[in-house]
Every structure is written in structure tokens, then in C-alpha cells.
Amino acid sequence: MSMPSFRSLTQNRNLKIGVYVGEFTTPGIGQIIKSAGCDFAMVDMEHSGFGYETVKQVLRYLHDAGVASMVRPPSKEYHHIARTCDVGAQGIMPPMLATAREARRIVNYIKYVPEGIRGVALGIAHDDYRTGPVLEKLSACNEKTSMVALIETVEGVENAEEIAAVNGVDCLWIGHFDLTCSLGIPGQFDHPEFNRAVDQIIAAARAHQKALGRLVTTIEEGARLFAAGFDMIIYSTDIGLLQTALSAGVQGLRSTCN
Q1: Could you tell me which of 9, 77, 182, 249 has the fewest CB atoms within 10 Å of its CB?
Q2: Mean pLDDT, the chain, as a whole number?
Q3: Interior CA angle at 2 toward 125 and 116, to 5°?
Q4: Angstrom distance (rounded) from CA 143 to CA 234
Q5: Euclidean distance between the first and final Cα of the chain, in Å?
């Protein structure tokens, strides 16, 4: 199915809505997410326990349904980044990005020559098992793959503008929980220090015309962030959505029937 790649979604400031996938990888997950109206999904390897075979399968479900993909690999190491690209991830969001130097290194990992140093493997999952002229395929892969800078440490905030300036970084993303922990204010999302850090990241994204993203758990929070300049919004997690809906139904049924 023809669809926008994750990178193409980052090229405008219109609202793009996604969902976090960290538990449920049923063959229907792509169609379920698409029918709900999502533009993209984030598949998490850092905290989910997903292996590459699982991610390879869920990416196929997503792409076949027309849902763009972003994957958070387990680390910033080359073998994790390159393999994440090979199994089909369009957007790559390594954890704990701290400096522009790291950002440039990871862009090199996800791009083929002449833009990077990624080891070449063609006719596999990432290019839909298609054949074709080598140079054309390398160029197409470079055009499709996208680097997302996950800023979730004090060091990352301090270097946000330099990170945003890196060619190949298409989106800044705030890891809000880890950022509050790095600031020494765990879970205090209304704290002035956290708000100052967020404002600094917003300013960096604006200065370099990069997409800006975050996960939210309420419609009101998402609307507030969109008004502040966030255009890539993940609405909740697969676990959270099931728990919230099921809990509301169970509690409502019990209170009605008792």
C-alpha cells in the first residue's frame, strides 16, 4: 500500500497523530491502528522486550495497513541501529541522545553512501524485498529513513539547538519522564525547571524548522502541546488504552448492576 513515510510526515507542521506499541503485536494491529485514524506508530524495543523478529513482523503489519513507523532501538550502538533499519523501521529514535556528535554518528549509521556508512543489504524487509538498480535503491532508502532525536537528559537539553542543526535530524522528541528524572524532579511535569527545558527544546526545533514530538495521555494535553508547536503527537500506549477502556467499562458495569 502506498503511504507517506515517517520522514515525509516530519516535513510539514500539520498535526500527525500516532500510538505507542510496546505489548500487542497481533497481525491485526496495523489495520486496527489505521482504522482508528493514526498516521504513524512507535514500536518500542528499549522497554518492551521485543526482539528483532517481532519488530520485523509488526512493521510489516503496520506498513501493509498504510501506517508509517518509528522504532526506538535498544541502544545507540551501530549493530542495533543498522539492524533496526534493515527490518524496516522508517524513523529511528535511539534513547538518551545527548550531543550533536552522537546525532551525526547515528545519522551516519542509518544512511547509505554517500550520506552515511550503513552496511548495504538490499532486497530485504526495509525495501519490501524488491530488486532494482543499486544506486537508485540506496538513494530511495536514504530518502525514506529518518533520524529522531530523543531528548531526555539535561545534557540533551543543553545541546538541543546543536542537535537540531544536524543535517539528517528530522525531528526532536521529548522523553518527558526521563527528562524530569535527569532534572532531579521525577514526574513533576508542572515544575518550572521542566517547563524551561521544554521551552528550550521547542525553541531549538523552531530555529531549525524541525518536527517536534511527545507522547500524551489526554486530548487536552495533546491540544495544548500542538498549540505550543508540537506537530507529532503520540496518543497513549497500547497497554494504557486497553487498561483505561476496560477499567471504565468494568467499573461502569459494576456500578450499574449493583
Answers
A1: 249
A2: 97
A3: 50
A4: 23
A5: 49
> Does the N-terminal peptide bond of residue 114 adopt cis geometry, omega within 30 degrees of 0?
yes
> Which has the minimum average pLDDT: 1-5, 138-142, 158-162, 194-198?
1-5
| CATH number for domain 6-149+212-250, candidates 3.40.50.300, 3.20.20.60, 3.40.980.10, 3.20.20.140 | 3.20.20.60
Which has the closest alpha carbon to 107: 145, 69, 135? Answer: 145
- CB-based contact 120:138 (threshold 8 Å): yes
* 49 dihedral zone (left: phi>0; alpha: psi -120 to 50; beta): left
Q: Where are the domains of the chain?
A: 6-149+212-250
| Contact (CB, 8 A) for 233 and 226 | yes
- Tell how far CA 97 is from the center of its chain: 13
The answer to whether 40 and 70 are in contact (CB under 8 A) is: yes
Residue 1 pLDDT exceeds 80 = no
Residue type, 82: A
What pLDDT is stored for residue 2 in this prediction?
Answer: 61
The three cell numbers locating residue 227: 498549540
Give mean pLDDT, residues 101-127: 97
How many whole angstroms separate alpha carbon 162 and alpha carbon 156?
10
Whole-number Å distance between alpha carbons of 78 and 70: 17
